[in-house]
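Notes from hallway chat w/ T.B., transcribed later so I don't forget. T.B. wanted the structure written out for a chain they're using in a teaching module, and asked if we could keep both sequence and structure tokens in one place. Agreed to drop them here.
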Amino acid sequence: MKNKMLMPYLLFAICIIINSSLISQTCLPDGITFYSQADVANFSLNYPDCNSIAGNVKIQGNIDFTGLEQITTIEGGIICNECSGFENFQGLNNLTSLGFLSWDEGAAFSFSGLESLVHVVEGISLDEANFDSFAGMSALETVGGDFTISECRFDAFNGPVLLESIGGSLILQETSDLTSINSLSNLVSIGDGLVIDENDDLVAIMGLSQVSFLGGELHVTDNPVLASLSGLDLITSIGGDLFIEECHLLENLNGLDGIISMAGAISISENDNITDILGIAQINPESITELQINLCPQLSFCSVASVCGFLNISTELSLFGENLADCNTSDEILANCEVNSITEEDNVVFSLMTNQVVNELVIQYNKNHVFMILDSMGRVVMEFTHTGTPIDVSVLSSGSYFVRVEGVEGKALRFQKM
């Protein structure tokens, strides 16, 4: 009797389990291609219980995703090649997880409809795409692989404000109209490289200001109007090469000051206005594999700590040239690394605490004596009596200067006012 009473409840539980398994059904392991809007509209009729597509979703022609509202997961990717007439992702409003997104050419579109997308398991690749911004990706938190934007025309990075990590590289190259990288203020980790290359209108990269981990190379190359590297300040190490090339408005490497170790080569090349490379001074020279500083016609002081340290290890894997004087050969640079004291008959007359000066020149000398500072043309620009306190040189313009003791002719020490 008791078993008969339990039987209806048991059957009810079995029905619930069966219905639950149907509700969470995964379909289409080989993917699906939509050739017309009718194909999309009929999806719910053909696959009424499917909310997870195991394969890739490809679209051809002038269609949208209206009719796929039941889909919450695409384990494969969304692939679109030359999608003329495609406007947005409406219809995928419940999609929370996507394998990858691959977009190649096509008409102008928006990412509207992807507001629920939280995870892209592999990567995002946008090639020759035309869109206003990333508005529509406001919930995106992680991209597991590369995030590549190549030869795209768009105005702003607005949208992925919650993006915290990119497992692969962030590659931004050959864009048009983009003036700044913004809305990435939560991005803290890039698993591989950061490549910012050939962006004609890019002025600032402050939107990367929270990135503290970079597992691969850092390439900032051929960005003709980029005026500052501010935004990279929290990066302490890089896992590959450091290239700063063909950024003609850069005057210094401020923004790289936090990097203390790397695992590759440094190339500072073809930067027309750079005068100061102190931003790389703190890098451990033993972590540098090769060094190139050339074709920087305003750069006259290369004897920063990291460069001196690397050249003291080996001069064979270095290239210098077509900079200003004192920065064109290993010998010139090493000479300025080593000379920081004047001696007479093995007795130190005076020495400098450092050859690189921002506001205060620290002279080590045990007597009160008159000193003179001369510019690169030999003209006296300051004269003072040393009393043991640092000398305020903040009024001097950036450049090379020499300091000598009055009465000790022909002997002077060079320092660089930064």
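Follow-up for T.B.: The chain is about 10% helix and 30% strand. Might be a good example for the class.
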